[in-house]
């Protein structure tokens, strides 16, 4: 998933126009005002394309005309302006069957992912036990192939995230992404594919990461994390506990910025989940259910001076109360 900054007010305006147009599709005056708004600024057109993209992916959640009219009424009651946010601009992979090189260069989502042995859907966490005794947990939106032979145990992660506790076996184990390969030394660690980059977090033991193109090697110890691509590696940082908490279906916040919590939560929801930067620095404390995001939003709304605004069923933002 890629991310691009779009002004919160522009994004919210685009979503509001979408709701208005769908609530009153034959209203010529509304159509004319929307056309003028769209032509006024290139950012308006970018935001509109983003809203349309979200609708194409998740709009089946909102096919009830009565609901659209309720949204319009709500918008008319609430005329308060909304401030800025960094929208999570989800870009879905499309394309035809391409070779390994196309996957490595990140042109499209991996075609191998479409046929991977193990796949999870959005908001799904799946535990697995492999033939060698290794225990795996696959996060939502993950695609993985397991390839064991007499010499090597290989896990090919095409997208998503896995947490692994390695089993005792004489054969070396490798986790491979387009960024490179990781070889553990009796350990517990997570690997998150982020397109051309991979994030490795080690919780026990150690892992040696090797960049695919440059051959650069870095040993990452327990309690450390590192992001790398095919040629370079970033400095080692402290590992974040949340990179393993998700395997239990929870998000543990210990004085966590609300913006960071919402970014994690967005990976478990269908549609757009944004946050007003005015409240992004609020601190959250507690244990939240990742697989029940509506419950988590309600918990946050009770605990913090925020409100959850539902412009559309698939367009939700968190703002100041």
Automatic annotation (TrEMBL):
This is Protein FecR. InterPro entries: FecR, FecR_N, Ferrdict_sens_TM. The keyword Protein biosynthesis does not apply. It holds the Pfam family FecR. Residues 117-208 form the FecR protein domain. The chain crosses the membrane at residues 84-103. GO terms for molecular function: sigma factor antagonist activity. Keywords: Membrane, Transmembrane, Transmembrane helix. Residues 12-52 form the FecR N-terminal domain. It comes from Pseudomonas reidholzensis. It comes from the Bacteria.
